[in-house]
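Inverse folding, one chain.
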């Protein structure tokens, strides 16, 4: 396996306990995020039904009740999922959104495994 390049440890998300929905915006198109594999303060791993080019800027939304949290980031890698017609995607959050990243991580910490 390759050298780990992540700045922070990623933790699994318990999606069955997650009360909200995740959406990814790519070039003004919105895609439902079917699975969030893991999360850290600096990024997340997701599953999506479409391929997204590495290096592409994205916006992630999490909506729960009347609250919406959004972050911007960059796709670092995208690989076809071996057992389905979906894609595993790694996203690195942008640094200028430190407060938003913290708020997002605090909300999501309820769902960490």
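Residues assigned per position:
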């Amino acid at each position: 396996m390759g050298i780990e390049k992540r700045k922070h440890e990623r933790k699994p998300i318990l999606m069955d306990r997650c009360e909200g929905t995740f959406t990814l915006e790519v070039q003004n198109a919105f895609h439902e995020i079917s699975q969030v594999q893991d999360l850290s303060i600096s990024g997340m791993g997701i599953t999506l039904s479409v391929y997204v080019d590495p290096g592409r800027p994205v916006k992630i939304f999490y909506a729960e009740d009347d609250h919406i949290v959004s972050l911007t980031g960059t796709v670092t890698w995208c690989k076809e999922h071996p057992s389905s017609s979906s894609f595993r995607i790694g996203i690195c959050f942008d640094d200028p959104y430190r407060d938003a990243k913290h708020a997002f991580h605090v909300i999501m910490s309820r769902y960490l495994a």
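The chain has a mean pLDDT of 84. The domain at 11-111 is CATH 2.40.10.220 (Thrombin, subunit H).
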